[in-house]
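User: I'm curious whether this sequence folds into something compact or stays loose and floppy. Could you predict its structure so I can see for myself?
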Amino acid sequence: MAPPPAGPGVAPPFAAPPTEGRSVRLWLGLGVGALAVLLCCGGGGAAMVGLAVSNVEAVQEQGRAVTEDYYQGLAERKYAKAYDALCDDAQRRESRAEFERRVAAEPKIDAYRVGDVNLTTLTVPVAVTFAGGNRADQEVTLGADEATGAMEVCGVS
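Assistant: Here's the prediction. I'll summarize afterward.
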């Protein structure tokens, strides 16, 4: 039979509870937690940078495309296409018929070259060659459609 358990006043087999490996586990846990936080925050930061870059590219692409559409409509004398590229404010200032009369009286565009969108001012430089060889540098002012968010031509100077 087993001896009876030790009673009060008997010394325990250990002076203090064992601590072997406890600090290693603590530091390992803290390291894994820090890595998880770094991955989450770093991934979020990378996502924000990616989103900003894609937005810049989208504005560049849309701005150039709508400017191309506008000048292509003028060059091909498809004034309805050019008018449709205008923003709501420009269309309120000038009806489709008024716009068509005005641009039909202007010199015909033989060629044009659309530059890059200036993201600070939302303008696009356009080098235009008219019938007869005259050239002009024009600047298109862009704006976003209130309903769709798509870029539109709001003015040409």
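Summary: The mean pLDDT is 84. The chain has one domain: 46-156.
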